[in-house]
Design a protein that fits this description.
15% of the residues lie in helices and 36% in strands. It is an alpha+beta fold. It is globular and about 50 Å long.
Length: 197
């Protein structure tokens, strides 16, 4: 079977992509508006982009009423975000934080998500995150005829929890991040070591 995307509705395209481009890591993006309200939102259209400059890309859509998501609005205002990785212990709170709230409400308060001000130049990180990236907005990408806005963010610093470091000298990490698979979540599970070349 070959599916022509030109013949498919937007939701059908999304469902096809979301079920086959897998697993997609969850980027739990923390931003703050100029009044100090903390916004916490998970994004699964998220991934590393380049190591020089060290960048990641997060694709931000709009709210169900068509208005800007707080993540986009805050990043445009402040140019800063903290992107936290999610493990199984944080899965439930991460999932709850995907619910739309009014812009003056914080997911941290609504869903009892504990945050910690680790770097004063950036929004707080989620307590318990295995790793977090302190980032600045690098570039917006315009997609013709799309309401989705890919944002390139540059990593300025990275937090790594001590308990996931297996070798401090080589900075080797071991943890199971949560990923999105279709409408479900998954852990990486079995790892396969490739044969030596």
């Amino acid at each position: 079977m070959v599916i022509n995307y030109a013949d498919k509705e937007l939701t059908q395209k999304y469902q096809l992509m979301a079920q086959t481009i897998i697993p997609r890591p969850i980027g739990w993006v923390v931003t703050q508006n100029k009044d100090g309200v903390v916004n916490i939102a998970p994004f699964s259209y998220f991934m590393g982009l380049s190591s020089n400059p060290p960048t990641m890309i997060v694709s931000v859509g709009h709210k169900s009423d068509g208005s800007q998501k707080d993540t986009l609005k805050n990043l445009r205002e402040t140019k800063k975000c903290t992107i936290c990785m999610v493990d199984e212990a944080l899965l439930e709170k991460m999932h709850l934080s995907s619910k739309e709230l009014e812009h003056h409400k914080s997911e941290a308060d609504e869903f009892n998500i504990q945050t910690k001000q680790f770097n004063l130049d950036f929004p707080p990180l989620i307590e318990g995150t295995p790793s977090a990236f302190f980032c600045e907005l690098y570039q917006e990408i315009e997609l013709k005829d799309s309401k989705t806005i890919p944002l390139v963010v540059e990593i300025k610093e990275q937090y790594i929890a001590d308990n996931i470091i297996t070798d401090k000298e080589k900075i080797t990490l071991e943890y199971e991040p949560v990923a999105r698979v279709g409408k479900s979540y998954a852990l990486l599970g079995k790892k396969i070591t490739p044969p030596k070349i």
